[in-house]
Amino acid sequence: MKLLWPNQRLTLALLGSLFLASLGAAGPRKYKIHDEREAEEFMKELDVRYSHECNLETLARWDYMVDVTDADKEAAANKAAVRYLDFKGEAAVNSSKFDYSGFESVDLYRRFRFLSKKGPGALGVDDLTKYKDHQSKMENIYSTATICDYHDPTQCGLTLEPDIELIMATSEDWEELRYVWDQWREVSGKLMREDFIQFVELSNKAAALDGFRDTSEYWLNSYTVDEREAAAFQVASPLSQDQFQAMTDQVWQKVSAELYKKLHSWVRWKMADVYPEHIDLTGPLPAHILGNMWGQDWVNIADRVMPFPEFPTYDVSESMVQNGWDIQQIFESAEDFFESIGLFPMTQTFWDKSVVNQTEWGKVMMCHASAEDFCLGSEGEDYRIKMCTEVNMEDLVTVHHEMGHIEYFMAYKNLPHVFRDSANPGIHEAIGDLIALSVSTPSHLENVLHLMPGEGVKSGTSSSSEHTDDEKRDLNFLMRMALEKIAFLPFGYLIDKFRWGVFEGSIPTDQMNAAWWQLRQELQGVTPPGGSRGEEFFDAGAKFHVPANVPYIRYFVSFITQFQFHAHLCQVAGHQGPLHNCDIYNNRDAGAVLRNALERGFSEPWPVVLKDLGGSPDMDPQAIISYFDPLIRFLDDELAKAGQCIGWGEDCVKSRAAASDQVGNARVLALESINSETSAQSTSVQSTSVSSTSAQSTSEQSTSASITSVQSTSEQSSSEQSTSASTTSMQSTSDQSTSVQSTSASPTSVPSTSEQSTSDHSTSASTTSVPSTSVPTSESSTTVPSTTVTAPSSSPVTELPTTEPVTDDPTDEKDAKKRLEEMDAEMTIHVQAAALADWNYETNMTEQMKNASIKAWMDVKNNFSVFHSTTIDYFHYEGFKDEDVKRQFELQKNLGAAALPKDDLQKLTDIVSRMVSTLSKKVCPATNSKCDAESEGMGIYELEAKMTNATETYDNLEYYWLEWREVSKELLEDYKEYVVLENKTADLNGFGNAGLLWIDPYTDANYTSDDFVSEVADLWNQTKPFYANLRAYVFHKLKMKYGDDITTNDLIPAHILGDMYGENWESLYDLVAPYNVTLPDISDLLNDKLDTVSNMTREVEEYFFVTMGLKPMTTKFWDNSTLENNGDMVCQPSAWDFYDVPKDSTPDTDGDFRIKMCAAKTQEDFITLHHEMAHIEYMMAYSSRGDDRKEIMPIVFRDGANPAFHEAVGSAIGLSARNPDYLKSVAERLSKKEEFTIHNAEMDDEMIVNHLMKIALAKIPVLPYAYILDSWRWKVFSDDTITDYNKRWWELRIAEQGIAPPTKRFPKSEFDVGSKFDVAVSTPYIWRFVAQVLQFQIHHKLGEICRCKDDINCPIWSCDEAGTALTKLMSLGRSVRWQKALGDFLGDETGGLSSEALKNFFMPLEDFLTTYITDNEISVQWNPDQINKYMDKEREEISATVPIVVGVVLACMVVVVIVAYFVGQKKQKKKLKAMESQVESGGHTNMEMKESKKEESSDSEEEEEKEKEKETLDERF
Fold it and tell me: Does the structure show a pLDDT above 90 at 511?
């Protein structure tokens, strides 16, 4: 971001500074500009720029907030935010170049005073990076924290909003609330303690560099008034940060004594009825029972503490609905309010561009209400509200609140940008709430809006019958307001009081948690539910604003000043009666006072505005006390009658003495006697209860943690927090957990590699960093709603499996079978939970969901490890007679990465995590190669789209290809360590290297790894001739397109094949299509005849399988599948098995199977859905066995016969779904015999060749790629002497694929193979090769069964014999050797893989290629031994001192030039002077010549002296 320097003199001064620095000087003195006129011009320009930059940022942010599923808008918003942040930083730096202390204009002085503060930007680059890293880590910990459900430990992934907050708001279960309260602090604050300590140190350093004592002083700068401002604005006295803190404390002490402690005592008394054994009537309140995670807002327990529960709540929501209110009327009523007091109507732009009805808007948006100023100043009228409004009272009040912000925006629009803000950070919120105080009054609701209150909270007995109905109504109203407003005040104060202490050093970092709870008990009267909390915790960090580094005192200020404003405006309006009944509606006198204050924005010190708007220049608590006066008097009376003490601890002694005077000594003594006995009893009971509860929790947690969370990996109990390192370590676990799915029971799905970034956005154009239009009673979530799914129906496991074997005889087959059954039952539940967690993440891609998925799969791993030890590894199953039992043991014999020692497993996990993270990096577009990659760059999905784009130039494709490999080379060092750990894993599982471990799923006693590798090599050699012909043809077409850009003779440049990796060439089809004929496409018909993708799937796709005699989809499939993009989800198509079958039912009719896909009504997605539904058919087939299909298949058997079978079956069905005859039948079915002709339904020879070409481009190039990818890895695993990874990779690519890199590559220092995500996540790839071959074998056999004339035109969709044969194959799952399953299906005893079906399928295309190659004299072969031609010589390592030496030499040269320049100037002047003398005298005399020579000699000596000085300076430098 470029901002003009203030003037040219400053530029020259800075250049001079650099010059002095190069000479080794101590450094220049600070240069300040004093010219006020120049400062005015600078500020004038800066104001224009500020408005412009702010407008750009707000526009981009708005576009994203109202359409959060648009990735382009998100990227644009992030880019704009970074741009605006950079601009503000540079503006602050440039503003600080002026010495504004002497400026005559106090307005100009004030603008510079606040714009010149740099904040964290004052830090050096390294410190600023650390600062951001610590803050980012803390925010990430908070935003991704999840817990498990108390009642169902298998249901993990509960997020703060809405899950946890809903529990805290609605549950009355003491233990559930305690569990949730405690768990949230375990996964949030506790994990960020060390980062917070480091962050404080850096934050204080930044504050000091900005001229402040510490961060607390920097934070409070906006509340200060210096001497210059005090004199200019006639403020009684300056106000420092310390004085403001003292003012705040005085306000709190008064409110606390007059009201808060009484409210606290009332709530404690009433909650004792709810929890009679847990509440001490003289002590603090337990923090977890107040209806809110932080105890900051008690509204959610209103129904338990209302004085008169039978009276109305004054919630008019029902009345609004009955009276036909809609969203428009809500907003019009708010506008009417402001116009009635003489404020501004909303602009036309507001009505045109605000988004307040999500249903009408039709896009997923951030629903948290916010008001936005688009920063156009005096020239603008663009103000908007974003809100998912509903017709209820809460939103009625919120709309008035938000529109209050808009009024503020419009009022100060004519001010300079820096003054377009509230008088202090708390007043913007106060203005919004000020209006809400009038709107919420019963009189306004009834008399102005004609809305009547609802029913009472609940039936019950009133606290008193001494009050009239109107008084009871008012007291209920005030109680509800107090639970919101008064209960919040101590929390609003103590969060920053705590942080001020930490910043100042009065709270040592090793005593933070103790200090936190001391403040909470002293100020708020709450304590943790389980007793004292140790210093390993950081409970302050459980509140969003602490990790997010957001000052909080603004909310305390807002809650106090809004009542001051309300009281003063009511006085101006001439209100008579109780303050809580005042409504300033329709009073223009009050409106004039309000408007005058709003128009001044931030241009004057806040005490001046506060005096005019609130009647006093100081925060005055008297207004809030007066507002609640009826409630205070009621509480005084009722608490005294009940003998309840006011406050807690020592307060109770004083309050009881006062009560004695009021009610009478005898009665009070009696009550004290009763309460003393009760208190003692209660205390005793509570102590016993807590003790027993703690013990119970310890026992239960230690046994049930197996599926609760990652804490199951440690021996942590509820009382032993020091052993919870496992929780911490798992927070950094990667998206993919290595070898977690040891049971091979994971659902068929595609792992996600992308993460959705989220950002918090400010509500207004102010510099605040949290939404400025909402009371901070909860953190607003920007998460896109996810599909609601039901937890597995099976009962949760509450204990880890025993670590002891069940028998003393490891050869006891009967006991082994029993143990297998127990293992299968328990592991099924864990895998169910993990599958559900995966689904939740992939359909709602948030950090919380991702971490929940990780935790769930770690739970699977942990439990499998135990079972492996006690069962699989214990029994000698080799001699068992039951083949079924024996095979279950064989399939689970490998422990995978779980066999690694804990440290190695963590290291492996971290390595994979880092590699995955690296591949999430972005690269700049070719049109802006110097961009900020993070904000403007493209991730791999965008890059892949570029690579498939036929309009991209040759050079651009090369640029993207190379840039992505610049990213992948960063994996190299991690991958080397990964190879070592993978081989160690293999060794611990009994294999010679990791390659053999990977191949093991394909082998058995009669089919070794060597057999498999040999068979794959044979298959490739058999199909390579067809690949070579296809490659030659495609290369010929590419040469025709790119011409001279292609400089290679016989190798295809890897970047022009329409794919980042050169494994799928389908995007080249339009370029290489053999004939000018169009393939059939029913997309238009699908779109016209079907309303939704679900209808397309139900009415058409399912028909394919049913006509084959396969199963229809289950009820749960239709209820739970996600077939269209619901927002923030992984769009990669995938099929899922949830292993959840109700008791006494059949899985293939009642099981939970689903598809996840962002499908559209197009032919391509239509075909893809056939593929995915084939997976579902496979899952249903093997989910049960037995004649009645009610015996559940063991989970280890519920998978494809080998890792390639699932894909092969899906692809075989996909081949049939592409058949033109089938597409024609679909067209006829949809058109219901209406006239409709599918284009080119009958395929002629040319159509067939084009059809096969499109299929071949997608399926054939993957054969060599998959083969060499794992061949390369097998070699690396087996030979630890290999160091030239990249050379070995390109040797294979050149030899087998005939593909070369576009430029020379380095053999050792680059890592091009790592560009493939499967390498980073440790995923074998040979299954892709096997599946490509196997699908044609399956497809051919199905055609043979259906007696088709050829494989291309074969209507298996109407052939139930094919369905019967396929079902028989699929129903075996993994229960038999894959060769046997395949052999039985094919009618071939060997059951081996064969390429014949593949070659026969493509025979017409092969014939075409052969003819074309011959006719055009195209060479098919390529030289496979060209590796050295494409390898560059490795770079020599350059010593780190070389750049320093070079820099020194260059600096010395500069000095020499400068010195020589000045010496030469002096010498030249002397010569000129001598020449002038000669001209005047007519020439030189001999004496003059001698003098001239003498002078020259003197000049030479002087030059020598200069040279000596320079040498001395060089040495010093």
Answer: yes
